[in-house]
User: Fold this.
Amino acid sequence: MRVVQIPTLFDNYTYLVICEKTGVCGIVDSPDAEATWKVIQKEGCDPAAILSTHHHLDHVGGNTDLVRRKKMAVYGGTNDSGRIPELTRPVKEGDTVQVGSTVFNILDIPGHTRGHIAYVAINEIPSPLGGDPIKRDHLHGGQGEGAVFCGDTLFAGGCGRLFEGTPQQMVESLTKLKNLPDGTKVYCGHEYTQKNLEFAKTLEPNNKALQRKYEEVLKKRERGEATVPTTIGEEKSYNPFLRWDSPELIGSLKKKETGLKQDPVSVFAAVRALKDRF
Ligand SMILES: [Zn+2]
Assistant:
C-alpha cells in the first residue's frame, strides 16, 4: 500500500491509497474531482472506490464528478445514507472494505458528525517463508505500521468540533483511535496542526513532546510542507484531546474552572469548549 497525499481546497487533504500489487487505488475524501483526477493520471493508478469518512461537502463534494469520470463503489457510514453523494456501499463497524489487496477495517467514530467512520488499513507483512502475507489486525494491537484515515475526528494536535455528537460519544470515538498501535500513521482531513499546537501549549506549557513537535511543525510550515501524517503514538504524547489523564492539563483547566470533575468526558468537554473559543 502506498499513500499519495493531495492538498485540496484551502487546507483539506485527499488521499489516494494505491495497491502496489494491482495498481488499483481508493480515493479518501475528495472535495475537488479535477485536482484529484490529475494526480490519479500522474500516478497511473486505476480508481476502484471512493472512501468517504463523513458527509461534509469539503470531504464528499467531488464524489458525483468522480463517479461520472469512472464508475466505482462509494463507501461511507450507514448513518450517512442519504447524505453522502453517490453512496452505494454503506458500512459500519465490523465491516471490511477491500481495495486491490489493501483491506480496511471500519470503525464507527461519531461526534463530529453522527455518521463519521474511520478506515483502518490492515498491515500486510511478507511471510519469512514466502507464503501468504501475515495480516496483522490493527484493531487488536499489531506492531507494524498501519494507517488510519480518520477525516475530521482526530487531527494532528486536535480533534473535530462536535457538530452532531456529545463529548461522551467523542471520547468513545477517540478512545478507539487511541487504542490503535502507536506506529499507526494518522491521515486526517485538514492541515490544522500549527494552530492546534498553539492551543495545546496553553494547557501543557511544560510538555516536552509538545514543545519538540511545535518546533518541528513551524519549520515544516515555513518550508511549505505538510505536517500530516503523524502517528497515534505521537498524538498520545501531545494532543490535548487524548490527554484527559494529564496532571498538567487538568491543573490548567482547574485554574479556569475550579469545580471541574476529573473524569475523561468532563476533562475532554472542558478542553473542547476552550478550543471552540481559541
Ligand atoms: Zn467535517
Remarks:
- The chain has a mean pLDDT of 93.
- Residues 208-222 form the longest helix (15 residues).
- The pocket of zinc ion is lined by residues 54, 56, 112, 152, 160 (CB under 6 Å).
